[in-house]
Specification:
Layout (H helix, E strand, L loop, with lengths): L12 H4 L13 H14 L5 E2 L11 H12 L12 H15 L8 E4 L1 H13 L5 E6 L4 H8 L3 E6 L10 H7 L4 E7 L11 H13 L3 E5 L20 H4 E6 L12 E4 L5 H11 L5 H7 L5 H28 L12 E5 L11 H12 L1 E2 L1 E2 L11 E5 L4 H17 L1
Parallel strand pairs: 1-10, 3-4, 3-5, 5-6, 6-7
Antiparallel strand pairs: 2-8, 7-8, 9-12, 11-12
Helix pairs in contact: 3-11, 5-6, 5-10, 7-8, 12-14
The chain binds pyridoxal-5'-phosphate.
């Protein structure tokens, strides 16, 4: 008997008990399954280059680790206010002022357990049963499920390279129906690494406001931008009353496993978000909140800036190298650490389908990139999401291995 033999088959409802029907609407997260395969190969002794994970290869700077240790020693481990500790909300507000010249009242900041909890709270506050929320296809897969979890309907709008893989105001007007309540965007985006330009974002917000809707704008990759001056939705006209921005310490601040993020919400919605946060989470991790204060110290900010430049260096190496291998990169990704690459031009018999190609690359070259499957329905079989959250040297090795793979077949 194996240690799983005692477990009932979860699909045998008579034996396993009945799960809620929404479970059937949540698609499996293929990235995770793919990462598991790569990990199994690694455990079997293979040298796998991971270009599949959406997680910085950097960890929190020493000042943050020291602040966590100090908070632990001082016993700062009890529940905090549901909206977060006041010094952290102040520090986040100051960060917006210093980095982006935006005034945000600390009272509008809701500290959460990562952007994930932020998105969950936003959907809990704004989405009713059968409400429709527009989002681009491709998009971050969990976004559909946050909406579904509250019995709303995610409406995926095919968005190709001509729109930087993002929604446009014209899209929003065209797809806004009787049940549409708002839009959910991410800029820069996962999986494409592309941002929405400031003018278009303003037009989207205007379109949403004219319909008394909401815009949830996920800015989790804020800070990781490489070309133009980054724009926050918070700086837009009208952002004060209809826009909720989502943010996190996971990416720019390299704190994925600490589970810390935040929202900026319109002032009149703060009590609703507070009530939900109290009930659903009580608070975000106290330890992570105290540690995160050190993210805003000048020495930490300097480290983050060096890391941003390192990500840019990797992107600037990888984009031409992938194009040379035959990948199509129709729009230069300007942020995050992803490239959404079309695999039609690859000289390999498996290249007609991104899932087959990803599998061959993993098995034969031990290079792990994820197929577009998770990110939408529009053209997932044409695309791979390539993450450069791994060292420059490993990226060079990956390109060399793929060169050998494609030219040997
Ligand atoms: C666009 C986007 N939003 C939200 C998340 C969730 O991040 P967090 O670790 O802050 O919960 C991710 C994680 O990859 C993401 O890419």
């Amino acid at each position: 008997m194996t240690d799983t033999d005692w477990m009932p088959d979860p699909f045998d409802t008579a034996r396993a008990g009945r799960l809620a029907s929404r479970i059937g609407q949540i698609a499996p997260f293929h990235v995770m399954e793919f990462v598991k395969q790569a990990t199994r190969l690694e455990q079997a002794g293979h040298d796998v280059i991971h270009m599949s994970i959406g997680e910085p290869d950097f960890t929190a700077p020493a000042a943050v680790v020291n602040a966590a240790a100090s908070a632990l020693r001082r016993g700062l481990t009890q529940y905090t206010p549901a909206l977060g500790i006041a010094p952290l909300r102040d520090a986040i507000a100051m960060h917006y002022q210093r980095m982006y010249g935006i005034d945000v009242e600390p009272a509008r900041i809701v500290v959460t357990a990562g952007a994930s909890a932020a998105l969950l709270l936003a959907c809990a506050a704004l989405v009713d049963r059968d409400d429709e929320v527009l989002m681009p296809d491709p998009t971050y897969p969990c976004n559909r499920h946050f909406v579904t979890a509250f019995e709303g309907r995610a409406v995926l709008v095919p968005s190709d390279a001509t729109q930087r893989f993002q929604l446009s105001a014209a899209h929003v007007q065209q797809h806004w129906g009787a049940n549409t309540r708002g839009v959910l965007l991410a800029s820069p985006s996962n999986p494409t690494g592309t941002s929405i330009d400031a003018g278009e974002l303003q037009r989207i917000v205007d379109t949403v406001r004219a319909r008394a809707g909401f815009a949830i704008v996920d800015e989790i990759y804020q800070g990781l931008t490489y070309d133009a001056t980054p724009v926050s939705a918070l700086s837009l006209h009208g952002a004060h009353d209809h826009v909720v921005t989502v943010n996190s310490f996971s990416k720019y601040f390299s704190m994925t496993g600490w589970r810390l993020g935040w929202l900026v919400v319109p002032p009149h919605w703060v009590p609703a978000f507070e009530k939900l946060a109290q009930n659903l989470f009580i608070c975000a991790s106290a330890l992570a909140q105290h540690a995160a204060l050190a993210c805003f110290e000048p020495a930490s900010l300097e480290i983050y800036e060096q890391r941003r430049l390192e990500f840019k260096r990797r992107r600037d190496f990888l984009v031409p190298a992938l194009r040379e291998l035959g990948f199509g990169i129709p729009v230069l990704p300007d942020g995050a650490f992803y490239i959404y690459a079309n695999c039609h031009g690859i000289a390999h018999q498996a290249a007609s389908d991104s899932a087959a190609l990803a599998s061959v690359m993993l098995q034969e070259a031990k290079v792990s990139m994820v197929p577009g499957l998770d990110f939408g329905m529009h053209a997932p079989h044409d695309y791979l999401r390539i993450s450069y959250a791994t060292s420059y040297e490993r990226l060079q090795q990956a390109i060399a291995r793929l060169h050998t793979l494609f030219h040997a077949s």
